[in-house]
Amino acid sequence: MNAITEHEGAMQAALAPQGDGEVLLSIRHLNKSFGGLKVTNDVSLDLRAGIVTTLVGPNGAGKTTLFNQITGHLVPDDGEILWRGQSLIGRRHFQIARMGIARTFQDLRLFNQMSVEENVLTVMEPVSWIWQPGGCAARQQRLERVHDILARTGLATKARTRALDLSYAERKFLSMARIMAADARIWLLDEPASGLDRSSYKRFLGLLRSEVAKGVTVCIIEHNLDIVVGISDRIAFLDQGKLLADGLPDEVLKNPHLAAIYFGDQTS
Ligand SMILES: Nc1ncnc2c1ncn2[C@@H]1O[C@H](COP(=O)(O)OP(=O)(O)OP(=O)(O)O)[C@@H](O)[C@H]1O
Question: What pTM, to 2 d.p., does this model score?
Answer without folding.
Answer: 0.86
